[in-house]
Specification:
alpha/beta; inorganic pyrophosphatase (n-terminal core); 4-stranded parallel sheet; two-stranded antiparallel ribbon; 2 helices; binds manganese (II) ion
């Protein structure tokens, strides 16, 4: 976790708890993934959105990024205005580094979380509670 520029080593459970706290604290959550997506990018994006919508039905949950018709079967992304990012939690999934994030507005939210299975090549997240 990085908070105020300070890196804190956390256990997996502490990280999960910190992310859950951020989810609970935000009414709007915007989920990004990488450009030229493959099914694991779209699946993790849409899957997370589905879990969040089921768990927190009153929150506004959006998935952004270019829609590719060949992946319509996995779900469709939302087109949202810039002001939706005000006070939003942004979660970037399956994206190793900043240049690959689809939709560069990912920095415009209130808080930013990265959830990824790639080796860390670049830090994205400013995750603070
Ligand atoms: Mn991928």
């Amino acid at each position: 976790m990085i908070s105020d520029g300070k890196v804190t080593k956390m256990t997996l459970r502490e990280t999960q708890s910190a992310i859950l706290d951020l989810i609970k604290q935000h009414d709007t959550i915007i989920i990004h993934r990488h450009q030229r997506p493959d099914p694991d990018a779209i699946g993790s994006q849409m899957g997370l959105a589905g879990i969040l919508k089921a768990s927190f039905p009153t929150k506004k949950i959006y998935c952004v990024g270019k829609q590719y018709p060949g992946f319509n079967w996995l779900g469709t992304t939302d087109v949202i205005e810039d002001d939706v990012y005000d006070h939003a939690l942004v979660i970037v999934v399956d994206t190793a580094n900043q240049p690959r994030v689809d939709d560069f507005r990912y920095t415009k939210g209130d808080k930013l979380v990265k959830i990824d299975h790639h080796q860390t090549t670049m830090r994205l997240a400013m995750c603070s509670g």
